[in-house]
Structure formats: structure tokens, C-alpha cells
Amino acid sequence: MNKEREELESWKRKIVKRSSVFQRVSKQAQKKINQFIPEKAHKIITESIKKMVEVTLKGSEWSNSSKAEVHLSLEEREAQMEERLEAHRKAAVIEGAGTGAGGIFLGLADFPLLLSIKMNFLSECSAIHGLDVKKYEERLFLLYVFQLAFSSDEHKKETLMVIEKWNEKKEELKEMDWRTFQQEYRDYIDFVKMFQLIPGVGAVVGAYANYQLLDQLGETAKYAYRIRYFNESGK
């Protein structure tokens, strides 16, 4: 397990490392670009995220009671996660290209669809690790993994600390601040995704952006669940 632990520590160092000058400048540029995104797009993103958070916490859509076999190693679990990531990534690419090709109206439809793909992937990751998302605390964990993947550097640091001490923190975290959640997510993806609304280039941008976003989620989920595995297995 030394290799897996070293990889995990290296990844955690990247999360807590201060933003580069380029990242900080990009963040400022992104805020200005947000002003040019149609208000309708902002509303759709906000409502989509609010609904996704509510549905996840209620547990009516992504519940998956299947359990991983207890004898599976970490390597075997992560191999299964990679297989599920590949399937969801393909779906996201096809969906992003299809909606992006339709310009602004179909492009707007991409946001709720992509959210669903991401949350389904995380739900399957939980099942692979033998975690029951019918339990409220596990559904809440999905949302924290999501935030760890798609939020500002500062928010990622805070979220990582929660995940590292999940067994302690889960008793304190009974609700999710969806307003902060949606703002962090919007700020993270708007810079790229806004170009998906432009006819002519939307299909290429949509496919590429969705591929990258699923990759980012896949890497984050891998290490978030690895933290849970080490903490709960005692290894």
C-alpha cells in the first residue's frame, strides 16, 4: 500500500498548494466573462444545481444498494471505478457534442444532463466501495466529493479537510448549502462551458469540456474514496 499512499499524499499536496499566478488571473477574467453569459443560462444552472442537491439528499434518484464484494482489494475497486468512468465519460462526450451543436438553446440543456451523469458516476463509485447511498450520510458524501472536484482552490482545501475527517464531520453536516455549492460549480465551469453556447464551435467545445470535466471528477473520486478506504480499513 506504500505506492497508493504516496500517490494519495502527492495528490493532496496539489490540492492544498496555493493557486498559480495564471490560475488567479484566470479567475478574475472568468468573473468578467460571467457578465456576458445570458441570464437565462445563469438561471438554468442555478435551478439545475438546486434540484440536483435536493434530489441527492432525498435519495430518490441515485440510490444504488449494490455492494462491492468485501474481499476486493483497493486496486480491484479502482479498476472498476475506471471502467465506470470510461462509460460515463463517453456518454458525457456524446451528450456535450450533441447539445453543443444546437447552439444556445440545446447548449443550455447540457447543464442538468451533465450533472446527472456526474452524480450517477459517483453513486456507482460508492457502490463499488461497499457504501450504501440509501443512507443520508453517504449521499451527502457524494456532494462533498463533487465539490472537491469542482470548486475554487480555497473551497477545495476546506472540502478536503472534511473528507479526511469524514467519520467525525458527518455528524455535524446535516444539510448542504446549495447556494455556495452552485456558485462554486458555476465559477469553475463557466469559463469553458460558455463557448458551448456558440453555434459552430459548440459541438467541439462541448465534447472536449465534458471529457475534461469527467476526467477531473474521476481523479477526485479515486482519491476521495481512497481516503475513505484507508481510514475505514485501518490499512
From TrEMBL:
Q: Which Pfam families match?
A: EcsC
Q: What InterPro entries does UniProt report for this protein, alphabetically?
A: EcsC (IPR024787)
Q: What is this protein called?
A: EcsC protein family protein
Q: Which organism is it from?
A: [Bacillus] enclensis
